[in-house]
Every structure is written in structure tokens, then in C-alpha cells.
Amino acid sequence: MKLYGCWGKIAYVNLSEGTVKVIEIHENDIKLFLGGTGLGAKILYELVQNPGSLDPLSPENPLILLTGPLTGTPFPSSGRFGVVAKSPLTGIFGESTAGGFWGPELKFAGFDGIVVIGRAKEPVYITIFDDEVSIRKAEHLWGKDTLETEEIIRKDHGDSRIKVACIGKGGENLVRFASIICDGGRAAGRCGLGAIMGSKKLKAIAVRGTKKVEYAHEDKLNEHCRELLRKVAQSAYATNARKYGTAGYVLVGYKYGDVPIKYWAKGTWDEIDKISGQEMVRKGLVKKPQACFNCPIACGRYVEITSGPYAGVKGHGPEYETVASIGSLCLLSDIEAIAKANELCTRYGLDTISLGSVIAFAMECYEKGLIAASDLGGIRLEWGNAEAVLKLIDLIANREGIGDILALGVKEASKYIKSSEEFAIHVKGLEVPMHDPRAWDSLALQYATMPRGACHTALAYTIDRGVVINELGFTKEFVSKLNRFSHVGKPRIVKIMQDYMGVFDCLVICKFLIFAGVEPSEIARALTYTTGWEFSKDKLLEIGERVFNLKRVFNVACGISRKDDTLPKRLLTPLSNGGAKGHRPNIEAMIDEYYRLRGWDKEGRPTKEKLKELQLLDIVERKKT
Ligand code: SF4
């Protein structure tokens, strides 16, 4: 049957054998999982025989990169792609998405995605140029940073329009939180999926396409998207994000007690305004906003430093998560130093959330005398020491000295540093993003139960903050009555947002659209016009729930259960000051209700009935045989 909005085709590359196959995606799989990390979860589950025993850095771990049915369409902010594999950082389901232009370009090349399996003997890169998939030698690229790699590949092929997703030294050296970088600084950052590329000796995937996928109702799609683009562009959120970027949230979040300070130990910091988006603009650091494919919001920052110790920094600037993780978490208030650290993370291909966390963790170890300057090659790892931060980034990416241990991430590194496990802040091995769960009970439950570990992207806490999604029942009246410090009603909000935001990762579209007032039926309508199949708000939520449960099934097979659905001790200990002063989120009071709403048993396992209802039982049963 003819497909619309996607090709129904995935390139399957076996690097051990040096072979390329094209595999078809069944129409029913697109209807049930759409694409992105949803379809990726299904492919991963089916390809991995035994999730629990699979070594994430072994050739058998499939690396799956997927677009979605809306990728590259006129739908606003539809430039993302999803990456899925078993995470080398957490040992459970790993996923990440990235913006930019790489995803649409892959679609224009005639593929919905690519699955990479095996391990090459020597470094290679893959090219997908209009239907043609090739494995090419990459000795000349190995050791280059991500920006150089993009440059060289474009030059080698004489085409400046080639889009490149690649790794830097972080991925090559198997840093467990290595990212995949595209478009000069957009990152699939979380879960260390760049290290999987490194383990496969895969430096880059370069794509270039000139094909156009057909839409079922093109005129209606174009008209609908024109209206949506106008609505998004005119929203207050877009105006603000264009001006100040995501770091414009720093001062707002600080008032709530949402911005973590001194490795989650403090609630106030009198230098907070120095790392805000407003300060970046005031200092002239930001030269212009930057947008991903077809995005009227343009939350990205193009920064340039022309004088002082960090002169020469040029390109993608730090966004909110980065200014908080390298800034407030480490008490580093020099925004130019943060921009330099951000550039290093881009070039090395390191996830800035995990990177900032692991450095802040090391700073606390240093303060407590658990590691000494002599263990650090003489670095005085004091809070706020910019030089020490930049030096540590080098050591981590190159796996030298203490950097070799910190490259394992906070959880594993704490096993090597005596008495540090107690304050190693992570959930299921994933370092916690830059939103404090003591400021929102909904976020606490969300962190405790997300498939990849501590993950902020279900955005449940933003409902507590007043974000309205009318069609989900989160009306102005409803959100105005919410108490962010109360657990009452939060399991329901968290479940709905996890399911709904999961759909965004399937499609793969930018989640900031919810702040611009885009409602579920508007997304469903675009999907109907694109694919020709009928979608509705309820259908989307059902898909989100299906995907969420399949990820949980994978994690249960990796040994995850109720004991893991919690937060580290420090995040359950009230702060003595700041916007969340005195509050301890009540996870215990929420977890049973949450499991009940999910249709899971007391141990947090999806029941047979729930799997059947979600049309997952066959997939799970098939695996057992
Ligand atoms: S809002 Fe920002 S991250 Fe999202 S698509 Fe637009 S530019 Fe990219």
C-alpha cells in the first residue's frame, strides 16, 4: 500500500560485515508507533534478544536513528530526529532527540531512518545521498572535532548542503555521556549515544537529499501549517525565546527554586543574574537568534566572543540546561567561560547536563577532601573556578587522569571515590537535568518514572507553572488552582504529560510548541493531512501510552522495578532557603496511584491486560518464543 508522509524504508547497515540492506517498515508499525523514539523503541525491543545481558558498547547494540511522519513537512519546528539504543551510561533504554536540519535531510534522501549494527575494523562514516547508502573510510576524520568533521565531509564531497551527524573525541573515547552533534552544535545529548557510535568506530552519518515525500492532502496540510506557523510566531513565548533564548528562563526558574545551585545543596546564589539569557544579550554575546528547520521560534543563540581570555568562541551558544549545569551547579558566574565550555562540549561531543553534573560532583568531592589537587594533576577544583572546569572538560574527553573516572558518569565515578555515593545525584544512572524536583511534586514523580532515568522533557512541571493545554483538561482555570508543592492530582498530570510528550518524540517535533499554544487536535489534524489516516487527540495519547509502556517493558527486562522509581536522598531533603525552601516532594504518596493509573502491578511492571489493551502483548509474547 502507498504510504504518505514517510517512505516506509530504513537503511540497515551492518558495520561488521560492511553490508547495507534496505528494510521496509510495516504500515501497521507506523500507525502504532509513528516514528522517532517510539518506532525506535519497537525496533530496539525486537532486535535485542536479551536486553538485560546486552553490553551497550558491544557490536550487537543497535544504534537507531529515526525521523517521524511530520519530519521535514511544513509543520512548525519539525526538524528533529530521534536516536535510540541501550544506553552505555545507564544500562537501560536510552533515547535522545536533536534539532537542526539533519532529520529533514535524511527524509529528503529517501529514508525514514537508519539502523547501525556491528563494529567496523577501522573508523568509517556512512553517507546517504539520495537513496544511495555507502560505508566510507574515516581515518582522516578520527580525532577531529565535530565542527571540523562536518567541514571536511562537506569539502570532500564538494557539497556545502550535506548535513552531518557525528561524534568528537567524547564518542571516540567512549565517554559514557558522549553526544551526537549535528548542524554545528545541535545535540542528541542524553544517555551517551555518541559512545555507541564510538564503539562501532562510526565517526559520522552524512546525508543529502533532493526527494520530496508525498502528502495525502497537501493543500490542506499547507494551509493548516501556514496558520499554525503564524500562531506560533506571534505567541508571547516565541517573542521571548527569540530575544533571550531558553536561558531567558534562568531568572523565572530561580524565583521558583527550580534552578539547581552548588550541586543541589543551596537554594540561593547572589550571582544568578550573571548567567541569564538577558545578561548574554546585554553583554553583546549573542549576535543573532538561530532556528532549526522550519521553526518560527528560533530559540538558538549564535554567539561570538572577540576579546578577552575566551576570544575566538563562535557559533551555537549555551542554552538553559547548559548555563545552569556549567554555571549555577558549579557556581561559575562567568558567562563567557560558560560559552567557552559549551563550545568545547560541542567540539568534543559531550552532553552538557551530564558534564556539568559530573564536574559539580567532583567539586564537592574536592571540597570534602575526597579527592586532592594531587589526584587532579594540580587542578584546584574550587567552586566557580573557570580554568578548572575547562581543564576537566579536556581531561574527560581525552580520558586522562581523573577524567578517565569522571567519563563514566556520576553513578559509576562515585564507586571509585570513597564516601561519595551518598551525594552522587542521578536517577537510574542518568544525571539530573537542571530543574529542581523540590520545586514541583509533579517533576519529582516524573523524574522517578521516566524511561531513560532523570528526564525533564515530559514537561509535567510546566503545567504546575501555568502552561495551558485546553484539550488535555489543563485549562486556565485548572492550572490556576494547582499547588506545585502538593502531590494531590499529580500522578494523573504526570501520566498524561509523559504520554503526550512521548508523541512529540515519535513525530519528531519540538516540545516548545506547547508553550506557543499548539493543541493536540492541531497536531492530529496535521498528521491526518500528512498520512491520510485519521488521527485524533485520543489516538495520539494512546500511541504515547503504548510507547511509554514498551520502553518500560525493555527496562523491566534490564532489571528496573519499583525500587528504582525514586530520587536520590539529597533531592528528597528540603533546602533551607530559596524559592522551594522547606519542601520535600512526596514520592511515596504518589507512586501507588501512578502505577494504578498506568495499569502496572505493585512492582511497576505493566500488566498483561495493559499490554493487551495497548496492542503490545503480541510483540512481548513473540520475544519469549
Ligand atoms: S524552538 Fe528552538 S529547539 Fe525547538 S525547533 Fe525551534 S529553534 Fe529548535
Q: Are any ligands bound, and if so which?
A: iron/sulfur cluster
- The total strand number stands at 17
Per the CATH scheme, the topology name of the largest domain is Aldehyde Ferredoxin Oxidoreductase,  A, domain 1
The CATH superfamily title of the largest domain: Aldehyde ferredoxin oxidoreductase, N-terminal domain
- Cα radius of gyration in angstroms: 23 Å
Separation of termini?
30 Å
* Annotation field: number of helices: 25
Residue share in helix: 25-40%
CATH-derived architecture of the largest domain: 4-Layer Sandwich
Which properties best describe this structure?
globular; binds iron/sulfur cluster; 625 residues; 3 domains; alpha+beta; Aldehyde Ferredoxin Oxidoreductase Protein, subunit A, domain 3; Aldehyde Ferredoxin Oxidoreductase,  A, domain 1; single chain; Aldehyde Ferredoxin Oxidoreductase Protein, subunit A, domain 2; 17 strands; 25 helices; six-stranded mixed sheet
